[in-house]
Amino acid sequence: MITLGIDIGSTTSKCVLMKDGQEIIAASLRVGGLGTEGPAEALAELWEMSGLTADDVDRTIVTGYGRNKYEGADGEVSELTCHALGGRWVFPELRTLIDIGGQDAKIISLSESGRMSNFVMNDKCAAGTGRFLDVMANILRMDIDELDECASKSVKPASISSTCTVFAESEVISQLANGVARPDLVAGICESVASRVSALARRAGVVPKVCMSGGVAKNGAVRRALAKSLETDIDFDPMAQYFGAIGAALYAYRQLSK
Ligand code: ADP
């Protein structure tokens, strides 16, 4: 059975094709979420990669911020359910999932058997989300995937005291003007996100095994700062940004298998 999971996020659309809920056949990602061509472009890439067409798919589930507006799936499921399913598929022992996406951060607690037992979410404020990093990368004229390497050269991470993204933006500009080294600024920016998210995680309770999902998981500086702050190991898989789409494809498979 071939199932398709589509995750339409606030900034990025992700698609995953799975065979029998066991194997990923193809995965595609396009920057551009709800209200953009992102979902259509990601799907077009998926067909090209896999050599399959929509007719080969037995069931499609859509998740993510833009799921309600998407027509063309057989059903929709919440991001929480999909991230938990996807995370557990990649890490079978997973108990705590820290998802940092383009505009929110979520902590999902799972029981030993994998049922969601608690969740805490920040969706009101850009600080502690990918948005904060996107804004700061823009000020520093850097690509988002350059932050990690730059931060690794930091000697003394700068302190970013403003918790509001707008104030933090001015703070970073003035620190830059005052000659603070770029790696120290970037490390401080990543630590600031980690500090917001670790406060959320403490509220939810952190039980190992812990992993990260969402696009910000790809930022090693945020991962390391979070692990240090929470005093725990945090696992990472290169497919972290696809966990929601993987979960959606798995959900579709489970429905078909019933
Ligand atoms: P959403 O589902 O809300 O669209 P994602 O989980 O796809 O969000 O994550 C998007 C965020 O991931 C972006 O805002 C960006 O900050 C971050 N991101 C994307 N790619 C990378 C990368 N290569 N390195 C670091 N951060 C990244």
Summed up, the domain count is 2
- What top-tier CATH class of the largest domain fits best? Alpha Beta
Radius of gyration: 18 Å
Class inferred from helices and paired strands? alpha/beta
How do the strands line up in the largest sheet? 3-2-1-4-5
Beta-strand content estimate: 15-25%
- Helicity, as a percent range: 25-40%
Low-confidence stretches: none
CATH 4th-level superfamily of the largest domain: ATPase, nucleotide binding domain
Q: Give the overall pLDDT as a whole number.
A: 95
Bound molecules: adenosine-5'-diphosphate
CATH architecture of the largest domain: 2-Layer Sandwich
Oligomer: single chain
Could you give a short account of the major beta sheet?
5 strands, mixed
Q: Please give the count of helices.
A: 8
End-to-end C-alpha gap = 13 Å
How would you spell out the order of helices and strands? EEEHEEHEEEHHHHEHEH
Would you give the CATH topology of the largest domain?
Answer: Nucleotidyltransferase, domain 5
C-alpha geometry: globular
